[in-house]
Design brief:
Radius of gyration: 17 Å
Strand order of the largest sheet: 7-8-9-10-11-1-2-3-4-5-6-12
CATH topology of the domain at 2-129 and 188-212: outer membrane lipoprotein receptor (LolB), chain A
CATH architecture of the domain at 2-129 and 188-212: Clam
Number of strands: 12
Shape: globular
CATH superfamily of the domain at 2-129 and 188-212: Lipoprotein localisation LolA/LolB/LppX
Helix content: 10-25%
Distance between the termini: 34 Å
Number of helices: 4
Strand content: 35-45%
Length: about 220
């Protein structure tokens, strides 16, 4: 579940970008991503995801659904195929709801290691300052690639690769690599920036659902 949560959080940071002054400079492209999020408040799209596990490279898992994002820090990922799984956050609490298993996992965003990757959505971080950015080799489809890597070894992802459309810094998709050699490739389809209601980013577990709280226990006052 942790790898999937990382995918959900990290790709939310880089859904699209607007043109930058120096389109081939990875630092300028990283700045363009942040500039984009300073202006765009809502994002929605269909998505297709292919997860390839290092120990089963010939058996990729294909998933699809819809994603919604609303500033500041609100997001919702509805996986619809092959199984229904939901990730919902109001910016403070992140829920992972699995209807078939009647399970819901609750996590305080700030108590999570994932807040490191998410914090610039709250105005508390910088993609350029918090990550190392560089230019990668063109991918198999000829896209230029912007590579984003964490600056500390404590994070459970190795790098995020961002294929860039030809002659434009607009992101065509994302590829997340974890330290175990697994990869998650996402493609966004029919993107919309129409306004989204706040209510869609709130979640209340159904009465018959078992809830597991993954937040850190409160620390005693000294």
């Amino acid at each position: 579940m942790r790898t999937m949560l990382l995918t959900v959080i990290l790709v939310t940071l880089v859904l699209s970008a607007r043109p930058a002054a120096a389109a081939d400079d990875p630092v300028e492209l990283a700045r363009a991503v942040e500039q984009h999020y300073s202006q765009v408040k809502d994002f929605s799209a269909r998505f297709e995801q292919v997860v390839t596990r290092a120990h089963l490279p010939d058996r990729p898992a294909t998933k699809s659904g819809r994603v919604y994002f609303k500033k500041p820090g609100m997001m919702r990922w509805d996986y619809l195929e092959p199984d229904k799984v939901h990730y919902v956050s109001d910016g403070l609490v992140l829920w992972n709801y699995i209807p078939e298993s009647k399970l819901a996992y609750r996590m305080e965003v700030r108590d999570s290691e994932l807040f490191y990757a998410l914090k610039f959505l709250f105005g508390e971080g910088s993609l350029e300052k918090d990550f190392d950015v560089s230019a990668g080799a063109p991918d198999s489809e000829g896209y230029r690639v912007l590579v984003v890597k964490p600056r500390t070894s404590e994070q459970n992802f190795q790098e995020l690769r961002l294929p860039l459309e030809k002659d434009s810094p607009r992101i065509a998709g994302t590829v997340l690599l974890d330290p175990a050699g697994n990869s998650s490739r996402l493609k966004f389809i029919k993107v919309s920036t129409q306004s989204l209601p706040d209510a869609g980013f709130r979640f209340t577990p159904p009465a018959d659902v078992q809830v597991e709280d993954l937040s850190r226990p409160a620390q005693p006052t000294p």
